Amino acid sequence: LIHYTLCRYRNWLAQDDTLSELLKLINCQLTEKGLKVEKASAAVIDATIIQTAGSKQRQAIEVDEEGQVSGQTTLSKDKNARWTKKNSLYKLGYKQHTRTDAEGYIEKLYITPTNAHECTHLSPLLEGLPKGTTVYADKGYDSKENRQHLKEHRLQNGIMRKACRNRPLTETQTKRNRYL
After folding, report:
1. Is 143 helix (H, G, I), strand (E, B) or coil?
2. How many CB atoms lie within 10 A of CB 110?
3. pLDDT-wise least confident of 27-31, 45-49, 70-74, 157-161
4. Residue 102: CB partners within 8 Å, gap ≥ 6?
5. Residue 121 near residue 98 (C-beta atoms within 8 A)
6. How high is the mean pLDDT of the chain?
7. pTM for this one?
8. Residue limits of the Transposase IS4-like domain (predicted)?
9. Nearest-CA neighbor of 141 among 109, 177, 117, 108?
């Protein structure tokens, strides 16, 4: 029951940018208290899988006016959650794309189903970044479109390169990935 409640609360926060607004307020308060640098020179972007309860069954127990107890088993599976495979394990849930500053303070969140590929969800996380900011991200965000987006918005490219089918990374690209 607790997990179900938390999932519903998280989904409610993710709607209508409520969570982003809360993060802005929290970060403003941290800056006012001197705990956070107002303009960081780097942004770190990563995605995390948030698992839901899966297709576990839950029991709905009802008591009528006469005191008769009736139980009905229903699926508690989240209808918006999706399956993905990671490290040979299947997981049901959502993918939380997060932008933090160089100190690790969360600046922006974006939630998608787990089966959504990371590279198509970079641009919403970049909104509001000042020009010249270095954007660090793992290989999941590597695409020609994302590199072009960074260039157009004058953001420094810190996205690790991903090898393509039948085209391994060059030695220079491998060294760059290790550096990042």
Report:
1. coil
2. 21
3. 70-74
4. 40, 41, 42, 43, 44
5. no
6. 81
7. 0.73
8. 41-178
9. 117
Residue 178 pLDDT = 93
* pLDDT score for 14: 67
C-alpha dihedral (86, 88, 93, 95), degrees to nearest 10: 0
CA distance 147 to 156: 9
7 in Cβ contact with 1 (< 8 Å):
no
Q: How far apart are CA 131 and CA 115, in angstroms?
A: 31
Least confident window among 37-41, 110-114, 163-167: 37-41
Mean pLDDT within 44-53:
87
Q: Which residues pair with 157 in a beta bridge?
A: 135
- Residues facing residue 71 across a β-bridge: 61
**How many Å separate Cα 101 from the centre of its chain?**
15
Pure H helices in 64-170: 123-126, 144-152
In degrees to the nearest 10, what's the CA dihedral of 42, 44, 45, 51? Answer: -150
Q: Which helix (H) or strand (E) holds 156?
A: strand 156-159
Residue 54, pLDDT above cutoff 70: no
DSSP helix/strand/coil, 38: coil
Q: What is the spatial distance between Cα 122 and Cα 104, in angstroms, rounded to a whole number?
A: 18
Supply the pLDDT for residue 57: 45
